[in-house]
């Protein structure tokens, strides 16, 4: 009987220790960000009363349809995220838990992260302008492009900026719109040569795109697997690797022809 009592005490102590460990784990901050669908913006229109794309030096077209860049929104870099938050996100289609370093790769303080995101956005805008003007065959000395978009940082809007600049200046090359009157959304970085790169968070961005009326979503080809996994109903997925490829896909859509598929 004494041995049994001793064993019971040991088991009780072990159970108490385990419970304490689970409690600490449940309430300890994790290096995780909770992300969800963010805002979208039509680069062919205005954002908070200011035109997103302003072009001077050459005639500008009146466009129809929409080219919507998409974003995700995340818990602040200094916010405390706990196991229970990750657990809840696991069961919500509209949320995801991602390593904080993948959402805020620059690290540092909030101000440092905001500064890095702004620098990435500015570089992305410069590359988007270079790629677009190169496609049209215009020199930066002939035309001046200004891109303004509040509350958006990082490089993931590059592809949509390039498409918007082209649509504003040249359209489809024959006086028509790139969109064919559709609401087209997309994501992807772009460099000055027109190469499209991956961005992350695609399933949530697709949700934002469909929520705001898009029927077509341009996605970096390298992210096809993620994009297909949770594709919203009514949203056509079009993979791209270059600006020229994106323009070719949009041309096929306008003509009612098959487009690339993931």
Automatic annotation (TrEMBL):
GO terms for molecular function: ATP-dependent peptidase activity; serine-type endopeptidase activity. Residues 142-247 form the Lon proteolytic domain. Residues 1-25 form the signal peptide. Keywords: Signal. GO terms for biological process: proteolysis. Pfam families: Lon_C (PF05362). InterPro entries: Lon_proteolytic (IPR008269), Ribosomal_Su5_D2-typ_SF (IPR020568), Ribsml_uS5_D2-typ_fold_subgr (IPR014721), TAT_signal (IPR006311). This is PDZ domain-containing protein. It comes from Actinacidiphila rubida.
């Amino acid at each position: 009987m004494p041995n049994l009592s001793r064993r019971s005490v040991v088991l009780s102590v072990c159970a108490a220790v385990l419970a304490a460990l689970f409690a600490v784990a449940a309430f300890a901050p994790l290096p995780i960000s909770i992300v969800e669908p963010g805002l979208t913006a039509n680069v062919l229109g205005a954002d908070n009363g200011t035109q997103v794309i302003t072009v001077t030096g050459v005639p500008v077209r009146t466009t129809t349809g929409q080219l919507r860049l998409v974003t995700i929104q995340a818990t602040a870099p200094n916010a405390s995220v706990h196991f229970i938050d990750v657990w809840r996100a696991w069961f919500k289609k509209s949320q995801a838990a991602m390593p904080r370093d993948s959402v805020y790769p620059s690290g540092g303080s909030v101000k440092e992260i905001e500064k890095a995101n702004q620098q990435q956005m500015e570089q992305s805008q410069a590359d988007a302008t270079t790629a677009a003007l190169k496609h049209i065959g215009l020199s930066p000395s002939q035309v001046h492009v200004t891109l303004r978009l509040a509350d958006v940082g990082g490089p993931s809007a590059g592809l949509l900026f390039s498409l918007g600049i082209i649509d504003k200046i040249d359209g489809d090359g024959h006086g028509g719109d790139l969109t064919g009157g559709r609401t087209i959304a997309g994501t992807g970085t772009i460099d000055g040569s027109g190469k499209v790169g991956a961005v992350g968070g695609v399933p949530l961005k697709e949700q934002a795109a469909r929520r705001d009326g898009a029927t077509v979503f341009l996605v970096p080809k390298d992210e096809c697997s993620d994009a297909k996994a949770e594709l919203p109903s009514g949203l056509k997925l079009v993979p791209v690797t270059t600006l020229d490829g994106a323009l070719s896909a949009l041309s096929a859509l306008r003509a009612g022809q098959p487009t690339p598929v993931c």
